[in-house]
Amino acid sequence: MKMMSGAAMVVEALKEVGVTHLFGYPGGAVLDIYDALHAQDDIKHVLVRHEQAAAHMADGYARATGKTGAVLVTSGPGATNTITGIATAFMDSIPMVILSGQVPSMHIGEDAFQECDMVGISRPVVKHSFLVKKAEDIPMAIAKAFYIANTGRPGPVVVDLPKDIVNVQDSHPYVFPDDVTMRSYNPTLKGHNKQIKKAVASMLKAQRPVLYVGGGAIVAEAGAYVTQLAELLHAPVCSTLMGLGAFSSVHPQFVGMLGMHGTLEANKTMHNSDCIIALGSRFDDRVTNNVDKFCPHADIIHVDIDPASISKIVNAHIPVVGSVDKVVLQMLELLADADFTNQEQKVADWWQQIEEWRSKKCLQFDQSSQVIKPQKVIQSLYEHTKGDAYVSSDVGQHQMFAALYYPFAKPRRWINSGGLGTMGFGLPAAMGVQFAYPDAVSVVVTGDGSIQMNIQELSTCLQYGLPIKIISLNNRALGMVRQWQDMNYKGRHSCSYMESMPDFVKLAEAYGHTGIKVDHLDDLDDAMARCFATPGLVFMDIMVDQNEHVYPMQIKYGAMDDMRLSKTERT
Amino acid sequence: MRRIISVLMENAPGALSRIVGVFSQRGFNVDSLCVAPTDDESLSRLTIITQGDDKVIEQITKQVNKLIDVLKIAELTEGPHIERELMLIKVGNKTELSRAEVKRNVDIFRARILDVNANNYTIEITGTSDKLCAFEDVMSQCGDIIESARTGVCGLARGDKALRP
Ligand SMILES: Cc1ncc(C[n+]2csc(CCOP(=O)(O)OP(=O)(O)O)c2C)c(N)n1
């Protein structure tokens, strides 16, 4: 039996579960662990500049790879600084393990220096947490934490480690468990056969079917099966903000993102459907609009790994608990015997209707404007990256423009904070992506507001030579807030504009990077080309139209398809 | 509607706070909560009385069941079940008449006097919550209630049904 210190056990167990990168920041309570990290080079430790960013980096890493992100922070302020990052991961079901230092066991509860009840403060935003009491328990706690984080509906798990159990002096027997199964935790993966039969019958009967694909399809790596199902049924496919890329956005059956800023055709298709096949989506309020008016004609088949998501907001006629890949495969097996010769004809009227909605071209924008339109920037970004970049986003108008104007053909390419809507997520998330895939093109689409939350990570980018491309849509305002104020508060722009904006080019340069300012539409294309031709990090500060709104947009209290199409038109 | 929800969970630190957290975070009511280890000491059994329509109860059971420490959950009020609650109540009685009245009602309700003092009795009573409330009412008529403590309801399904790991 191997004998080692608690600190060494932490590092050893992290290796055992396959951690390659540990995003963290040292402090008193974790110095022993840092000392143990110093003695090895299997795990790359990334020194961030703020613990919130460490959590977002681990999150970006996890979203891009499907692997569990790992974070190490000290007790007290180190731990509390991660909370926004943990909540962000929790809302979007992202697997992450946060190791937090804690004051020595005998001082817990004494208001000791840098003490904070991390298990307590994180409780509402974690899938589970452990306060480890004995050094011998460290391997089991870490093994379980990683198991829980990345099985079932994934989520963040906190492991709180008191300083006395990780000290480097004492030695304890190290036993990594062979098996971490828990009697109280057995996620259902395969769907119930009876439910699958019902679902399949309903799909086959449908005249106006639609697939409503969410983040669960990405988590389950179910893209290929979902595509097969869609093609068999010849059904239109809509995606949530979180699901983009699970089904290719350039597939002819794709009708767009749905919901608050969804396309007209996606929302119309949903509203008029007679059979909604919801795959790993959760009927979020940013999708449904007024629940009482939600899709009145549809039979709803709801596939989700989390039983609590089913019939939480909208009643499911056919609930199926299971992971999207397994369940859709089961459906495909049943459908193998079905006769699809008339399927295309069966849905011909439906498609004719959908084409009519499509012909409204709801994403059109003013091409004659000499002011740079934000949509134009995203289109240019798409061209210059051949649609194949990892695009991380912050939160605001720019996020919606990116989601709508950058079609994602592959899963895990679109990295954004959908559930919590965390400004400051984009840059660190893109860094996490870049650590996972050093040779990939990792882009951040951001705004002048969001980028200033976690801008300090430009320093981390320099330290690790991360060639991130930052596309900042600078509208000199908190654009999304301003849009709501225009629409709902008679244009009273209370605290939604920014005075004293920094010179972002100089700022990028001060951090040792390249900055490019773009004022004129005519320069956009060249500047974008220069951005991707320049090695290293480039900060693109692009002056875009301050008055642009994101459209389409659902009208409050309306049905899914009650939408504003521009400042003057509505459905 | 009043519901009894029974939960079997790991007897682990923090498990209870997670359950209570689900209720407070999601705005569910807790009327009473009763928790203790079971015959298998690694497990705790928790009984919650709550209010809500079917949709709310469905969410409560699903959200609680989702917690990693929870093994099983059942709504006892869905089927035939037995429920009991225990109350300790201290009743002041200065007059002989009052003392006699209290004693008479203790017999009627099959309660038990546990402690006798010059000025008060401390009484134990078990039963359904309704019975306890009725007893409390009667006591307030024949004496002065000084204080009372109730355990909250615990219950089991009738017949072969059981909540086991
Ligand atoms: C941490 C945080 N604080 C506040 C908000 C509310 N909020 C949503 S969008 C937005 C404006 C974002 O401005 P900017 O980053 O400049 O993007 P734009 O909308 O202009 O594209 C704000 C303040 C938020 N989502 N996150």
TrEMBL record, chain A:
One of its GO terms (molecular function) is magnesium ion binding. CDD domains: TPP_AHAS, TPP_PYR_POX_like. Its cofactor is thiamine diphosphate; Mg(2+). Its EC number is 2.2.1.6. Residues 196-328 form the Thiamine pyrophosphate enzyme central domain. It catalyses: 2 pyruvate + H(+) = (2S)-2-acetolactate + CO2. It comes from the Bacteria. Pfam families: TPP_enzyme_C (PF02775), TPP_enzyme_M (PF00205), TPP_enzyme_N (PF02776). GO terms for cellular component: acetolactate synthase complex. InterPro entries: Acetolactate_synth_lsu, AHAS_TPP, DHS-like_NAD/FAD-binding_dom, THDP-binding, Thiamin_PyroP_enz_cen_dom, Thiamin_PyroP_enz_TPP-bd_dom, TPP-bd_CS, TPP_enz. Residues 394-542 form the Thiamine pyrophosphate enzyme TPP-binding domain. Binds 1 thiamine pyrophosphate per subunit. Pathway: Amino-acid biosynthesis; L-isoleucine biosynthesis; L-isoleucine from 2-oxobutanoate: step 1/4; Amino-acid biosynthesis; L-valine biosynthesis; L-valine from pyruvate: step 1/4. One of its GO terms (biological process) is L-valine biosynthetic process. Transmembrane segments: none annotated. Keywords: Amino-acid biosynthesis, Branched-chain amino acid biosynthesis, FAD, Flavoprotein, Magnesium, Metal-binding, Thiamine pyrophosphate, Transferase. Residues 4-119 form the Thiamine pyrophosphate enzyme N-terminal TPP-binding domain. Belongs to the TPP enzyme family. This is Acetolactate synthase. It comes from Brumicola pallidula DSM 14239 = ACAM 615. The lineage of its organism: Bacteria, Pseudomonadati, Pseudomonadota, Gammaproteobacteria, Alteromonadales.
UniProtKB/TrEMBL annotation, chain B:
Pathway: Amino-acid biosynthesis; L-valine biosynthesis; L-valine from pyruvate: step 1/4; Amino-acid biosynthesis; L-isoleucine biosynthesis; L-isoleucine from 2-oxobutanoate: step 1/4. SUPFAM superfamilies: ACT-like. Its EC number is 2.2.1.6. One of its GO terms (biological process) is isoleucine biosynthetic process. The keyword Transferase applies. GO terms for cellular component: cytosol. The keyword 4Fe-4S does not apply. It comes from the Bacteria. GO terms for molecular function: acetolactate synthase activity; acetolactate synthase regulator activity. Keywords: Amino-acid biosynthesis, Branched-chain amino acid biosynthesis, Transferase. It catalyses: 2 pyruvate + H(+) = (2S)-2-acetolactate + CO2. Residues 4-78 form the ACT domain. It is an enzyme of class 2 (transferase). Pfam families: ACT_AHAS_ss, ALS_ss_C. Transmembrane segments: none annotated. Belongs to the acetolactate synthase small subunit family. Dimer of large and small chains. Catalyzes the conversion of 2 pyruvate molecules into acetolactate in the first common step of the biosynthetic pathway of the branched-amino acids such as leucine, isoleucine, and valine. NCBIfam families: acolac_sm, PRK11895.1. This is Acetolactate synthase small subunit. It comes from Brumicola pallidula DSM 14239 = ACAM 615. The lineage of its organism: Bacteria, Pseudomonadati, Pseudomonadota, Gammaproteobacteria, Alteromonadales. The gene is ilvH.
